[in-house]
Amino acid sequence: xxxxxxxxxxxxxxxxxxxxxxxxxxxxxxxxxxxxxxxxxxxxxxxxxxxxxxxxxxxxxxxxxxxxxxxxxxxxxxxxxxxxxxxxxxxxxxxxxxxxxxxxxxxxxxxxxxxxxxxxxxxxxxxxxxxxxxxxxxxxxxxxxxxxxxxxxxxxxxxxxxxxxxxxxxxxxxxxxxxxxxxxxxxxxxxxxxxxxxxxxxxxxxxxxxxxxxxxxxxxxxxxxxxxxxxxxxxxxxxxxxxxxxxxxxxxxxxxxxxxxxxxxxxxxxxxxxxxxxxxxxxxxxxxxxxxxxxxxxxxxxxxxxxxxxxxxxxxxxxxxxxxxxxxxxxxxxxxxxxxxxxxxxxxxxxxxxxxxxxxxxxxxxxxxxxxxxxxxxxxxxxxxxxxxxxxxxxxxxxxxxxxxxxx
Length: 408
Ligand code: ADP
Prior knowledge:
The protein is built from 12 helices and 13 strands. The chain is α+β, with helices and mostly antiparallel strands. The site of adenosine-5'-diphosphate has 21 residues, from α9 and α12.
């Protein structure tokens, strides 16, 4: 009798143990706010409970509609291999994770060799051998934001319904953790923006009030009016920059994809900044090759990038300085260097330069700005499949280089 029942009882006992482990993970998740730690807890539980060798969490990139590794565990994720893994973009078509995200259903693949969807670049880069995969979608408020995957069931057993159930429960937890981290980041961002907007607002309100006070000499009034105008303009620019930035971040910005003659864009940019350069006694030069400079993209946004870089090249220049726009065509790529003879940027600031709201310490005394321009420019260039690089020597000048793929 006993031998007939024991497998069922054993199964029940296992199920209870699994559920308790899931509950334990849920409890532990409440103890840490750090997303990385939370994901590690979820992944450790996933591989342990499904008896697998490795696991990955993929998130969907709203801009490119590709998947990237948010976190991974197991042999393929250790040390330097983990770094390589994080750089891999997994296509939506031609990967099991992509299939799960597109179909909103789990995928059970007991032998990847017989599944055409399997994407094998990750294995190639990490020398990991994937044999089997169980993947479930990460769903948040009805939206599929990514996938949770476990690899290689130990003993090469097939995945069970219980494995799917456990992984689905843990995926729901992972989705909550990811969403919370995002909300936290957004609330941080909003307070940062409000703080930034408050500075010009305070001075506008202050000076506007003083304009009406009795006994203020006319020349002071003229100065107050000028400050109000300047600060209000800055506020306007900040609002525009911020909206543009928010559109880019949320993936709502739709870029045009048309042939753009960058020779024309460079010449237009030079013409637009000429008055600003003249005002500061800065000579603007151009060196353009004879070769065609056509890229596929959004003309207005590409012009916006060059305008931002050139206007910085004037703002942060010295009196009587130079600003040069130097284009080169090489190996299917176009590079446009914007070189100034200005203040330069200290080495310790170079890696922070593209962060939102970052301004080199001391800049505020020279000229008012938002610290968003470079962040936006970098995103725009990258959205065109390009790169934005910077080189600088303090006291000598700075060169920003936009590198874009040329149209075929
Ligand atoms: P903003 O100019 O509005 O402050 P940006 O994002 O365009 O914002 O630039 C960020 C910071 O980078 C600036 O505050 C300035 O400190 C530094 N920077 C940008 N371009 C240059 C340049 N050509 N030379 C020196 N410093 C620069």
